[in-house]
Amino acid sequence: MKISIITVCWNASATLEETIKSVASQSYNDIEYIIVDGGSTDSSVDIIKKYSNVIDKWVSEKDKGLYDAMNKGVAMATGDYIGILNADDTFFEKNTIEKVAKFLQDNPLDACVGDIVQHKNGKIIRKYSSKNWIPEKLKIGFMAPHPSIFFKKELFQKFGDYKLGYKIAADYELIIRYFIKHAITWKYSGITTTSMSVGGASSSGLSSYNKITEEVAKAFTDNNISYSPFKVKYRVFWKIFDFLKK
């Protein structure tokens, strides 16, 4: 089973090398590693070239943003399954992809969903678990962590890519479309896939919170799916409540 890993980057020289090293150190052999760079002006391309023996395919050119770059990576991918590893993140363990491949070989599904941890200054400050997640929770603002999901390649061909009409929540929209509208087969893997740094486009302040709320509403409307606008808007409170129950 070939698994394609896509890293999208732009001026990410401060963290990109560690991301690449985490792919290079994986125990699983059948990995196709793809990097889509948005035309960086720092040393990102030099780092990519330095690890050309690890990277199967890469491109550096201007794009229309994060999700356009992800779509480019998906188009380049030839693996059975596709996973996303952001340019400031790393795989949680050296055998992460080996675990994911074994799980998917034992459970032939459209997707598997796992866990991630968030770190700050090298210290884990939160574990984001999908153990109790179900697609219906998308309707109240709960999304399984995008980097923990491995999608079958053919899903993108059947149901479409990341939509460029979304600036910050195209991943949320795609998950709504796949998991609810098209009811893909999936299972919780129990695998912690990714160590993510705190921050990012969808977790960086009130303006981002309001923007993602607006785009989540659009995602449900675009897919003709009913949801709770109130619960999505105030999802932070439901998340705190859910956390306290654990």
Secondary-structure topology with pairs:
Elements: E1 3-9, H1 13-24, E2 31-37, H2 44-50, E3 57-60, H3 66-76, E4 81-84, E5 90-91, H4 96-106, E6 111-120, E7 123-128, E8 150-152, H5 153-159, H6 170-181, E9 186-197, H7 206-222, H8 229-233, H9 235-245
Parallel strand pairs: 1-2, 1-4, 2-3, 6-9
Antiparallel strand pairs: 4-8, 5-9, 6-7, 6-8
Helix pairs in contact: 1-2, 6-7
Can you give a write-up of this model?
The radius of gyration is 17 Å and the shape is globular. It has 246 residues and is α/β, with parallel strands linked by helices. The protein starts with a strand and ends with a helix. α1 (13-24) packs parallel to α2 and α6 (170-181) runs parallel beside α7 (206-222). 38% of the residues lie in helices and 22% in strands. The chain contains 9 helices and 9 strands. Strands 1, 2, 3, 4, 5, 6, 7, 8 and 9 form a 9-stranded mixed β-sheet that branches.
> What's the average pLDDT?
93
Based on CA atoms alone, the radius of gyration comes out at 17 Å
Number of strands: 9
Instruction: Please state the overall shape, judged from the principal axes of the Cα atoms.
Output: globular
Helix content: 25-40%
> How big a fraction of the residues is strand?
15-25%
The biggest beta sheet, please? Answer: 9 strands, mixed
Q: What are the segments in which pLDDT stays under 50 over at least 5 consecutive residues?
A: none
Structural class: alpha/beta
SS field, number of helical segments: 9
H and E string: EHEHEHEEHEEEHHEHHH
Distance between the termini: 35 Å
